[in-house]
Automatic annotation (TrEMBL):
Signal peptide (UniProt feature, chain positions): none
Segments forming domain S-adenosyl-L-homocysteine hydrolase NAD binding: 263-424
Record bears the keyword NAD: yes
Sequence similarity: Belongs to the adenosylhomocysteinase family.
Record's keyword annotation contains NAD: yes
GO CC, any one term: cytosol
One Pfam family from the record: AdoHcyase_NAD
GO biological process, one term: S-adenosylmethionine cycle
Protein name: Adenosylhomocysteinase like 1
Region ranges (Disordered): 56-77
Named cofactor requirement(s): NAD(+)
Amino acid sequence: MGADKYILDIYPYNPPLRYGHAVIPFCTDGGSEGSIFPTGPSSLSWLMAFSLRSTGRSSDDEVSPREKQQTNSKGSSNFCVKNIKQAEFGRREIEIAEQDMSALISLRKRAQGEKPLAGAKIVGCTHITAQTAVLIETLCALGAQCRWSACNIYSTQNEVAAALAEAGVAVFAWKGESEDDFWWCIDRCVNMDGWQANMILDDGGDLTHWVYKKYPNVFKKIRGIVEESVTGVHRLYQLSKAGKLCVPAMNVNDSVTKQKFDNLYCCRESILDGLKRTTDVMFGGKQVVVCGYGEVGKGCCAALKALGAIVNITEIDPICALQACMDGFRVVKLNEVIRQVDVVITCTGNKNVVTREHLDRMKNSCIVCNMGHSNTEIDVTSLRTPELTWERVRSQVDHVIWPDGKRVVLLAEGRLLNLSCSTVPTFVLSITATTQALALIELYNAPEGRYKQDVYLLPKKMDEYVASLHLPSFDAHLTELTDDQAKYLGLNKNGPFKPNYYRSDLCEGDKESIFWYHLRPLPAVAAWVVPLYCSGMWVWSYRAACRGRVMPSRWLGPWTSSLLR
């Protein structure tokens, strides 16, 4: 507001045009009255300078941040970002994000006096965006020391990274890192003289893997790991199954607040944003195939269907496939439709979902992108061969050209589309960030021995608490159970209202467990259900249904318990 007033004071009659973050006056030294651009001898240099300013680029953009010597206003150089001079702009981005992350800010205000993370040394590897910056600064306000790197080489907001570095956070990240840069940044976060991490916050498992492989002594002294992605959680379960997980870990990905909100609602909105910004495609009547009908797939399909796209689904899970059918989608094999589709979207968390064979058979101008965390779903490596030509047409948009002239439009080189090519809704990320903060607080403050060397799910009481923090944003008013109603349902009036094995995207084991739970008061039905259940038709272990240990509410530490009362 102050800047706009200043501009109007200078140009009271002819307010300037705005382009990006640059201001274009209507009259310049080299131009005539009423002309937007100058026409004098220096016009070319003026336009080049303007172009660089308005696009956020500078003349030293080609210089790797690793080769730059930068310091913040406090004289610290314990960071590596694209351009520390962008810090002021990044601070504004963070302040905007804070407006829609009221629950996380509320947690910060409530807890910063007690400093529940005092002494915590958190090393993190997540997307570095304005929303993540609010989480990082919340952790710092609660007493933690943080060192941070990016989990995706294309999702970092350079100005936000600069703002964090200016605030004193040791952040090592910039948009467009190479693979070597990516691992170098992670190593710089972990490997520092006189500083040893005791907590890990990860998104994808790369940081956990690096510490486990390169710094085993550090890994053994970690007090807890918090992981938010399906890929990272899968890696943790592999370590646990092999008996190599020597620290307790929290599986945030399978919490209801993460699955139902971040995975579903976030992707429902951001898939279109990413595709529109990069391709300008119109979806009405387009043939689309979405690989995977989990929560991410459900969100993507709902958005595409609403715009008139004809959506096909590929699935390996018969229950998810049946859900897709009941939602009005056709379930196919990718090979059956690959020649006809206009858009291919992967969101499985698996590898080689779209292979070179599929890519060879695609029609001209087919758009290929990934909404899963990992960049392994599309076999991009197979496209880097001499007979294929790569042509960069926009930022994060490549045309891969076959010898016969066919082009496939590849977005973000097969990496996560929404955070690489667009932005995501701040409010949804507030839900996940609040869950991550509470998980870190709980693991850090838990007495020794409370958590074994295993993977745990957060109790539903904590999920419900996170959800309740966000309800005031909608002026929502919860109905309260009467004593008689609570007794009838066998519930505490204050929750939790769901059993610990409940998840939003119920897998087969979850559904059977809940079905069996509700059959208890029905002895007549149970008389014929019991033989079927005991015969093995519905055998499903509690551990498999929960994908790990469920942390009972009674285990919670005193600080976390006080929040949930």
